[in-house]
Specification:
Layout lengths: L2 H61 L4 H22 L8 H25 L10 H5 L8
Helix pairs in contact: 1-2, 1-3
């Protein structure tokens, strides 16, 4: 993992973890132990799905840049499908409070997306790799050589 990829992951995971701690605390006070557990499951599910997606997308961008946009669309569709499957499997569960789970999942997802957008906007990512062989061979515009 490159340093800017790790930095992006960290800039997304930290705010999500903070929101997760708040969600667990509020849910535990409002809905008891099952509420706290539901909030924790929601935040962990968000972190797992979004973190894995970010890692896969960064790796795809580096190895197969021509597939980046298609992979992004496929990845987001897969993330939604995985969360939907989780929701269907645990639809009638009594292991945790489903309302706390839903609100913490929503809050953590919104925070992750916002943090990811902010991280990409602040990142100084080069459009051209200055170390590539093609960059050294190219001549300046207007040059006759």
């Amino acid at each position: 993992m490159q340093s800017n990829d790790a930095r992006t992951l960290l800039q997304c995971a930290v705010p999500t973890a903070v929101v997760g701690l708040v969600a667990v605390a509020v849910s535990a006070v409002v809905a008891g132990g099952k509420g706290g557990l539901g909030a924790a499951v929601g935040v962990l599910l968000t972190g797992a799905v979004m973190g894995t997606g970010l890692i896969i997308l960064n790796r795809t961008a580096r190895l197969l840049p021509h597939l980046f946009q298609a992979m992004g669309l496929l990845l987001y569709t897969t993330q939604i499908l995985l969360v939907a499957i989780f929701l269907l499997v645990f639809k009638d569960t009594t292991l945790f409070n489903t309302r706390s789970f839903a609100f913490s999942l929503l809050a953590a997802t919104l925070v992750w997306i916002g943090a990811q957008a902010r991280a990409y906007m602040k990142a100084k990512i080069l459009y051209v790799d200055p170390e590539s062989g093609d960059a050294k061979k190219s001549t300046p515009a207007g040059s006759t050589s």
